[in-house]
Amino acid sequence: MTLEAPARSPGEMAPGHHRPGTTAVNDEERRLLAASVQMLARLSLTGVPFRELVARRTDVGVTPGGAPVLPTVVDFLSWTDQIARIASQRDLHAPRRGLWLAGRMSPRAQYGLSELGWTIHEAPTLTGAR
Could you tell me which residue, 110 or 56, shows the higher pLDDT? Predict the structure, then answer.
């Protein structure tokens, strides 16, 4: 499963489209990708506007002000070297950026993400959502 957008010049993005590049090669990756897209859709329905969705290893929403919104669809987030690398990625740096968490996180993960400038939010659920 690969998400693709219509061909455009570099940096040009039609509203509501993904940039090409996210490939899910197994069932676990497909479920994670689908859950990330669902979380971004819920955020959009609950008042978090997006100007674009960027497909990376996970989907990232970008607000009209340019703030990355990283959906985190895990039951528990621990602070690991991999999480530190993702949170520190140059392409996710912005004056404001938010991580929306579906589950819980360790105190160390909360501290590490906060130290890197991430604002942590609880992911919304929709009434009647399954």
Answer: 110
Is 66 inside a domain boundary? yes
Using one digit for the tens of pLDDT, what is the confidence trace for 92-110?
889 999 999 999 999 999 9
Would you say residue 68 lies in a domain? yes
C-alpha R_g of the chain: 14
- The predicted model scores a pTM of 0.70
Q: Which long-range contacts (CB under 8 A, 24 or more apart) does 114-120 make?
A: 116/84, 116/87, 116/88, 117/93, 118/70, 118/87
Q: How many domains does the chain have?
A: 1
Residue 18 contacts by C-beta under 8 Å, 6 or more apart in sequence?
3, 4, 5, 53, 54, 55, 59
Residue with the bigger pLDDT between 1 and 99: it is 99
